[in-house]
Amino acid sequence: MSTHLSTALDLATRRVPVLPLRAGKVPFGNCPACRDNACGGRPNMKTPGPCTCLRPCHAWAAATTDSDVITGAAWAPLWKQAAAVAYHPGGIGLTVVDLDHADAVAWARRTLPTTRAVQTTRGEHWIYQGVMPSVNAVRDGVDIKSTMAYARWLGPGTGTMTALPDAVRNLVVKKPSPVRPATVPVATRGGECRHRTPAYLERGIAMAEQRICEAAGGVHATVYRTFLAVLSAHGRCGCLTDAHAARLFAAAQTKGETARHCVDAWSNARTALGM
What we know:
Layout: H1 3-13, E1 18-22, E2 26-27, H2 67-70, H3 76-81, E3 84-87, E4 94-99, H4 102-111, E5 116-119, E6 124-129, E7 135-139, E8 142-145, E9 151-152, E10 162-163, H5 166-172, H6 198-213, H7 219-234, H8 242-254, H9 259-272
Helix pairs in contact: 6-7, 6-8, 7-9
């Protein structure tokens, strides 16, 4: 049994969802049936969705604690090639602040509450109890890995794990800000803006999330069209915030979209609407 497989099985017995990584710290490539999310993807850890592939084709969403899958015929050849073991932090209620170099570590020591730390090749992983959205490059050399993300397993680390602080959450969303162009007035017809009714906006965002999550194919196009519809209906009155956009981005990422694709689709939709 390889060292990586042994580590994965040990973690699985502790209910830590794991998957193999190949060289370059990336998951193994999608199989033909799953390439470009043709299978429909795996929306989240609890509801696998239509895909029945047992290979680790969906990065964080393929992470599992099922020893039969980990040692099964589909995964067995991959452990022979694996360069590392990864785990899904959000799947066990954790957030990893990935500090990629010495300056980032120094910043964290000045700024963030101390918690359990794991040494990495170039820096440290700081691990907090609690979950949040995963975002890369929140500042130079700092990534957030929690929900819908994976992190390398580099050992249990040292120190006492503390609760996820606002100082980390605020790295992703400092404060809600209106999504509206400077050239468009808050209300185009005068009077109270109908979009400020909480139920109206909440219904629109919930429907958009559902539309994205239920996409069986053409995910890129569905995400773009949904972003376009949301911005068209809610983007000109000042009621749409970064928190709402983050919900839509999260839904898109459960279908395999990257954070960069989400940003590009959002920007393209705004441009198409003259925003």
